[in-house]
Amino acid sequence: MTALAVLDERPEHRADVDRIVTADLAAQFAAAGVAAEVAASLLTMQATSRRTDYEAAHPDARFLVLLRAGEVVGRLVIDEVDTGIHVVDIVVAPEARRTGVASEALSRVCRDADARGTGIDLQVWTDNEAAIALYRRLGFRACGPEDSGRLPMCRMPSPTIPTPAHDDAASRVTVTGHTTLMRSAG
Fold first, then answer.
1. How many domains are contained in the chain?
2. What global pTM score does this model have?
C-alpha cells in the first residue's frame, strides 16, 4: 500500500478537497432522504458553508490534506484547544474509504497527543457506525450525551509512547504547532 502523506492544504488542493466534501455531503443528503434535485442545488453552498463555518469557529485550526500516491484522498481539520486537540472534521473520498486513510491520519494525531500527554476530542454523527468503530479502535470513548444526533467522543493520552523506527527530517510534518512524524506505519 502506498504511504499516506499529510500536508497543509494549499490552494492547488482546493478543487480536490471540494470534490471530496461535496461527495460526502451528497451521501449525507441521500441517507437523509433529500431528493437528488434538491440536494444538487444545495451541495456547493453547503460545501462552502462548511469551510467558512470551520474557519470562523476555529480560526487557528489546521486544514490538512491526505494524499496517497500524490492524489488528494481526504482532508483533516484539527484545532489545538485548552483541553488538547480537537478534531474538527475528517472526510475521505468515497473511492478511498475502507483503505486505512482515516485510521492512519488519526493514528498520527493520536501519537502526537500521546507524545505531549494531551487528550483528543471530536464529535461524530450517531448513525455513522463505521466512524464510531474506528474511533473506538483508536481509544476514543463517549464523553458526553448525544446532542442533535452527534456523539462527543474523547481519547485520553496513552501511557506508552511507541518509539519510531527512524527519524528523518523528510518524514516530519508539524501538527498543532508541534513537529510530529507523519509517515505510513505500513
1. 1
2. 0.82
